[in-house]
Amino acid sequence: MQPNTPSKPARGPLFQPKILTTLRDYDTHTFLGDLFAGLTVALVALPLSIAIAIASGAEPGVGLVTAVVGGFVISALGGSRVQIGGPTGAFIVVVYGVIAEHGYDGLVTATFMAGIILVVSGWLRIGNLIRHVPEPVINGFTVGIAIIIAVSQFRDAFGLQAENLPAEFVAKMEGMWAVRETFSLTALMVTVGTGILIVLLRRLAPRLPGIIFAVILASLAVWAFGLPVETIGSRYGEIQSSLPAPRLPDLSPEKLVELFPSAFIIAFLAGIESLLSAIVADRMVAGKHRPNAEVVAQGIANTASALFAGLPATGAIARTATNVRAGGRTPVAGIAHALFILVFMLVAAPLANYLPMPALAAILLLTAWNMAEMDELKNRLSPSVRISDRGLLVLTMVLTVLVDLTVAIGVGVAIGLALRIRRRDIDPPEWHAPHH
Fold this sequence. Notes:
Domain SLC26A/SulP transporter: 31-380
Helix content: 55-70%
Membrane topology: Multi-pass membrane protein
Structural class: mainly alpha
Protein name: SulP family inorganic anion transporter
Strand order of the largest sheet: 1-2
Order of helices and strands: HHHEHHHHHHHHHEHHHHHH
Mean pLDDT: 88
Keywords: Membrane, Transmembrane, Transmembrane helix
Radius of gyration: 21 Å
Shape: globular
Low-confidence stretches: 1-12
Largest sheet: 2 strands, antiparallel
Main location: membrane
Distance between the termini: 15 Å
């Protein structure tokens, strides 16, 4: 049962990672619980990280690199006891757009810059201000992102033969409609079957990593029956099986100016999602996170991820909740999760080549559904809610889908804060904990 009032993060030392305080009374029982939780989350994060990377327009392996590097740093240096970090669905829209416009090297530079912005923000204690961002804005762009993620998976879910689809929502829909005759019933069956398995396993055995079992069964079915669907190997070739050598991205003045807007929105999203995830985690373990320490850790994690040519990283609400349910109680669980993924990369990465693309589409379609929280969305749009809040949610959502995430957040925050000032409603909102 969740409390009616939001947890108030402890101020605490700015740069004191939670791991330093949680290890004071550490024992073997806690370590074993953290180790099991780390393994459980790693099994969930493996296919999800690959799927997020592919949906973002990147190579599959960079999702694993991000989970290893970003996940390790976020847990080792963060201000939350149980936060799990890595690539998340919220970044898919931004990352896809940056890669389409500036190339993958541009994304790496923007991610590096975003890390610096987050470190500076944490130093200035801006983490406390996150509690004043209007909740309808958060809900609006989250639903908008969920819609874009879902639509982006139609290609693989329906087996459409469409190459180089544009990033824009309407143009992408038109591109897929133009090749509708390439629809594959087999691909759709794999997508639906995988999705049903994931949902059933979550309900029947919630402590087990249902995602990995569902994907393994889908892969075995495709291989055993010779089903004509694309796999990671057939589309992308062999997945990378080690971390790349670290190197600095292009930090020329021209690049920094060109990519600053993208870097700012990456930093904003990373800060928003990580702190919301930390708040949800606080409620699950009756703890208090250190918001500014968490922001600094997110900054260092994104800078580190960029050094290894990874994607943006942040706290992941669903994986954090999985960690808590599996028995994780200290940052050691998050560190273990990153190390387990690294072991998989080094030892068993070739197995990922057999993962069917429709099965990965099923994972992201369910991720989008969970992000949208349809039951809660109905409540947020009910007549009992202020019409201004409903309008702000819908406006932010529409701008996210049809225009641009940067515009959506900028307009939404400006209008939301203006409405709160007009109503003299300047106390922090009561955050809703997403049901993942």
